Amino acid sequence: MTTETRIRIVGADEAAGLAGPLAELLMDCVAGGASVSFMAPLDKPKAERFWMKVADGVAKGDRILLIAESGKRIMGTVQVVIGLPENQPHRADVSKLLVHREFRRLGVGARLMAEVDKVAAQAGRTLLVLDTATGSDGERLYARSGWIRAGVIPGYALKPHGGATDTTFFYKQLSAGGAPDGRAKTADVSHAADAAQAIEPARPADAAAIKALVDGAYSKYIDRMGKLPAPMQADYGALAASGDLYVLRAHGVIAGAILLTQDRDALKVNNLVVGHEDQGKGYGRELMLFAERMARSRGLRALTLYTNALMHENIALYQKTGFVITDRVAEDGFDRVYFRKPLVP
Predict the structure, then answer these.
(1) Which residue numbers delimit the N-acetyltransferase domain (predicted)?
(2) Pairing with 292, which of 72, 99, 141, 157 sits 20 to 30 Å away (CA)?
(3) Residue 317 neighbours by CB under 8 Å, 6+ apart
(4) What are phi and psi of 266, to 5 degrees?
(5) Cα separation, 339 vs 5, whole angstroms
């Protein structure tokens, strides 16, 4: 699906008029199992009443309503609640991130959350708080977007179709410029094909987001291997501090990462990972091309890498992209297959 998305703030004069389409969005999310304060089935009058209350809050200046739209279709929405007690003028609650099921896996949620940082900073807020159902797609998105888990409350809410769900609470601290603390706004090392993407050195503050990305991508191998894959055991804070770890950000969210070190006359790809939700978007290819450019810039003759012998999918993929098997080694408790790809000058 090719979809042009626009993210914007809904003005006080139009919020009430959008109650109908926003109600349909909310109904779709509840029907799909999203734990967002409502039980299924949710009827339209009840959903519209909720959005009329939101519109009233927008009119009073208590909240900021953002929508993602394509043409006349509302794809998603999120709210930044700034009408908080007087002893919390620095804080905002982030509420009701909703993306219609038709527009999932297009980066809509990530773009809405990136805009949340900007509008919250413009409102003078430096601490953001939210909660989400534990194990949900939202939880994975927030972890990848630099939010920090504060804790989990078991059985906090009911799922819309019945049954209790745990709830994870997150927070994010912003600098005065709107970026998460510890993430200086530096020039990108490499722009990917899309102007909204950039590959840059990872920062220690990115460690939790990278770990969540790795866990989501590699957890499927645990049963096959009978233990945690090596990437799930790494210290990503230390790797980021080493300067060898790079991340691909798409619309401000970490969508992939690559760990590169020199290996004699070659550049070694120690790990390349793309988030489960972002696979199939070409990010893995962009990261590998980035590695090739770096190798050439250092005058190196090849890329090398390895994968676990039980990760059959990776072995087939690397062979299709020009890598040749050079060795099979048992090391660090794992059976590994080593590859090398010569670089054409």
Answers:
(1) 7-177, 197-344
(2) 141
(3) none
(4) -135, 165
(5) 40
**Helix or strand holding residue 152 (H, E):** strand 148-158
Domains and CATH numbers, the chain: 6-173 (3.40.630.30), 198-342 (3.40.630.30)
Q: Which residues of the chain have pLDDT under 70?
A: 1-3, 176-196, 345
CA torsion angle 117 120 124 127 (round to 10): -70
Give the separation between CA 204 and CA 235, rounded to whole angstroms. 10
Residue type, 240: A
CA distance 323 to 269: 12
- For residue 196, CA distances in Å to 188, 227, 252, 305 come to 11, 37, 8, 28
pLDDT score for 145: 79
pLDDT at 263: 84
Distances (CA, A) of 260 to 127, 290, 305, 332: 34, 10, 10, 19
For the stretch 302-328, what's the b/e string if a residue is b when 16 or more beta carbons lie within 10 angstroms of its beta carbon? bbbbbbbbebeebbeebeeeebeeeee
